[in-house]
Amino acid sequence: METVYLNGQFIPRDQATISPDDRGFLFGDSIYEVTRWYGGYFLDLPAHAARLRRSLKETLIEWEDSGRFEEISEELISRNDLGGDCSIVYFQVTRGAAPRTHAFPKPAVKPTVYGYAKRHSIDTLACERGVGLWMVPDPRWNRCDIKSTALIANILPYQEAHDRGFAEVCFVRNGFVTEGAHSNIFFVRDGTLYTHPESNDILSGITRKIIVALAAEYEIPLTEEAVAVDMIPYMHEALISNTTGEIVPVVKISDQVIGNGVAGPVTRNLQQLFRNRVQAANPVR
Ligand code: PLP
Predict the structure, then answer these.
(1) Which atom of ligand 1 is least distant from the CA of 179?
(2) What's the rounded mean pLDDT across residues 175-203?
(3) What residues are annotated to the active site?
C-alpha cells in the first residue's frame, strides 16, 4: 500500500482524507513543488526547498514545519521502497480548511500539507525525437513566478494542445514567448541560447537554472531575453525543460518546423551536460 504524508503523519493513501472546506479545494489557495529522485539521490533538493519556501512567503501561507520539507521528501521515498527507482515527490501546502470566504481564516488555521512519491521515468523517446508545441496566447495571471496549484489557465490550453497532438504549449504574451504550461522554453540561434528572463511572467524552473549554470560553466552563449514570436521561424533550435522531463528538443511550434525538424547540436550537447550533472550529483559515485 502506498504511503503518503498528510499533516504531520505518514499514512496509507486510502486513509488520507481532506476536508471539503479546504481552501486548496475551494479556491486553489495553495502552492506545490515537484522534485526528482534519481534512484538514490535528489537533484538540487535545496533549490526546490527554497522555491517552496518562496511560494509560501509570497502567498502568506504559514507552514511552520517547512524546514522539514527535505526530510519528509526522503522519508516518502524510503517508506514507499523507491530508493533504487527514478521517482518524483509531489508536495502541496494549502491555506487550510475553514468556512468559505475570501478573507484568510481568522483565527488562522493549520495549513493542509500533503505529499506523495511515485515511480516516474524520463520519456526517452521524447528526449530523442523531440516534440511539438502548440502556440497560444498566455491567459495566466501576472504572478506566474508562484508555483500555485491554481492551474486552470495552464490546463485548458494544455488540453487543447494535447487534443491536437502536441506535447506542450508555447505561451505568448505581448508578442513574446514566455514558457510552456509546465516547462520553460529555450531557443537557439547561431549557437546562442535565448530564454525568457526571470520575472513574474514565468516560473523560475530549477531545470532552467541548471541549464543557465551549465551554459556559463561550458561557455555556451546564453542571453536571458524573451524571443519575439515573429523571430521563431529564424530560430535554429528550441527545447523545453522541467523536472519531470529534463531537456526535450522542440522540433515544431504549431505549423512552424524548427531548424531541420530534429534535435540540434546545442540541444544534444546540453542533454549530455545535464546527464553528466545528474551523475555528478550522485553521492556514492
Ligand atoms: N514553468 C512552469 C509553468 C512549470 O509548471 C514548470 C514545472 O512544473 C516549469 C516551468 C519547470 O520548472 P522545473 O524545472 O522546476 O520543474
Answers:
(1) 1
(2) 98
(3) 147
